[in-house]
């Protein structure tokens, strides 16, 4: 008995270390970006970008001529079977545990098949619900092939950094699979919109672009701007960068804390004033479901930091001018917001602002809320949006230095 | 100052034991049932359970105090030998079936979420073996182990909530009543045996130092457990939102996958898995011990620890019968309903007997 009790721990050590599911680190091929395209016969063309862990690390020397990643495309009925098929090409065991970005072509997103692909994929235990969804204007495989960032050798680092930047600037929404699943009953879901193709367009307002339209010279091939709008699991349109920003402003919980934007100069019509907008407290949404049409009152408190005044008008020391500037910003924001609300009411017949959460609050049971049919009521709702900017600071000079001509 | 062990548990150990027995239910497949019944208001159900279970407890505790006996002794004393054996056997069936069904569902979780390639039979075998070893050490060790581990479990739980805080949205909890007050109350009663262990744990009174310790520990442990399950359910809804949360098989394990501390510290699920496995092993060793104890008492045996091994084997064999978790969940629902009835009516029955006997005795006198 004593001998047995001495032996037993050792036996357990052997079997308890999960040999059945062991994974050798050396043996794994980490897929860091997944692209999905439409293929014939309800199939999908899945593009895997597999990271090469040696590049960009201390063992670089032993892999000097290897590229940072390998890209391969497989056509199969679904993502998991594509992964299995890809194994006939890839030497290492493909693994999704570090997958953070999924790129889906607009062509696929506009079909009903999109939901089937996403919804079935999360049954796989390696697929996390925190994967970001990017909709590419061109084919996803072309997007992945074209994306060769100059300063980021390792692809996962590129996406990790970019996702932080996007969240900061708010031209694109923070879109994950989890959030997509939240909004399947008629609410609008916004996904990140990106492209590597170019169709430049000149706009006076610097953020009225969609991906691919930003006038750019040099730099990386990928442009990320605006959002793809989904309703009932299908892409039905796009929002420009500016519209996306406004939509994020109107949401109750801020993901982007501060954005920099320019607004028309109220005193010199040719110029614009550049300011930083800070969200200090959550947007206040009040919905009156007892009225017909439904009344929605939205108040967005904002702190404004004036950064640049290219017209050199003295908005700093002159309090009357200051008031004028504030009103100009307020009016500009409100008219854009109203236009966006109108667009969502008429074009999409639903809202991307997460206001359904506030509508839900007005009901006692889920059944009552469903019977109310918020999305339908929203299309006719009377929406009142009020931005409440308050100018907090003016940068680090009292006023722009003036030229004194004799 | 080292106290010599007297083989009995105090308040601290028993509170921890109650917590490990009940609070872990927020992390297995129980929330699936709660969300299915309570929709986005699933977090209200644990609170209702507590209220419903409190009624039999209020009847049972004074009885136990009056006779100063554990549940099983009380049954024999009040119901006589023959009926006592019948009731105890019924209790044994309840605890055996819930141990079997629950342990199998835990293994299903581990199999689906973490080790899909390792044979399920092997995982189940190992799991029950470890539980058996802990149960074999005796009730005192289980209590001690629980009281040591409970702090780690609570702290890891708080870290989990903290790490999903940013992804949660309290507005998701609305509309507050979910399916409506009446359905909530109805399901609160029907499923209340999910917390019914607190009545069954009363069999352990002889292992405690005093009745006062027992009552205090039961109530504190029970209160905290219900609170913890409610908090977890609320977080499932707050992070995944209803109806999306309804499609999740194992919400706790999905929650650990979502958890992250900042952008750098992600993939925390393996850490939480460790704590969870420790908690489940403790949980099932308590169950095993309880099964063996009730069985021994039914047959009026004094030594019950030799029964642990054959019972473990039995549980393993029965647990391997269902093919997958869906068939399992249906049998689980049946177990819960029937157990609800037993847990609820047993104390009432005992109380009635006690009144009746008391009257007869006073008539005799």
Task: Write a structural description.
The complex is a heterodimer of chains A (406) and B (365). Chain A is globular and about 95 Å long. By secondary structure, chain A is an alpha/beta fold. In chain A, 31% of the residues lie in helices and 26% in strands. Chain A folds into two domains: 222 residues, no CATH class; 156 residues, Nutrient germinant receptor protein C, domain 3 (GMP Synthetase, Chain A, domain 3), CATH 3.30.300. The longest helix of chain A is centred in the C-terminal third of the chain and has 30 residues. In chain A, strands 1, 2, 3, 4, 5, 6, 7, 8 and 9 form a nine-stranded mixed β-sheet that branches. In chain A, strands 10, 11, 12, 13 and 14 form a five-stranded mixed β-sheet that branches. Chain B has 365 residues and is mainly alpha-helical. Chain B has one domain: Amino acid/polyamine transporter I, CATH 1.20.1740.10. Chains A and B meet through helix 1, helix 7, helix 10 and helix 11 of A and helix 10 of B. Chain B: It is found in: Membrane. Chain B: This is Spore germination protein (Amino acid permease). Chain B: Its main location: membrane. Chain B: Keywords: Germination, Membrane, Transmembrane, Transmembrane helix, Transport. Chain B: It is a multi-pass membrane protein.
Highlighted features:
heterodimer; A: 406 residues; alpha/beta; GMP Synthetase, Chain A, domain 3; 2 domains; 9-stranded mixed β-sheet; 5-stranded mixed β-sheet; 14 strands; 31% helix; 26% strand; B: 365 residues; mainly alpha; Amino acid/polyamine transporter I; globular; transmembrane (chain B); Spore germination protein (Amino acid permease) (chain B); transport (chain B); germination (chain B)
What's the structural blueprint in terms of helices and strands?
The complex is a heterodimer of chains A (406) and B (365).
Chain A: H1 2-16, E1 28-38, E2 44-51, E3 69-76, H2 79-86, E4 93-95, E5 101-105, H3 106-109, H4 113-121, E6 132-136, H5 140-146, H6 155-169, H7 177-182, E7 189-195, E8 223-231, E9 234-239, H8 241-250, E10 258-264, E11 272-278, E12 284-288, E13 295-308, H9 319-348, H10 356-361, H11 366-372, H12 374-380, E14 382-393
Parallel strand pairs in A: 1-4, 1-5, 5-6, 6-7, 13-14
Antiparallel strand pairs in A: 1-2, 2-3, 7-8, 8-9, 10-11, 11-13, 12-13
Chain B: H1 11-22, H2 30-38, H3 44-67, H4 71-113, H5 120-136, H6 139-164, H7 181-190, H8 197-200, H9 211-240, H10 251-258, H11 269-298, H12 308-319, H13 325-364
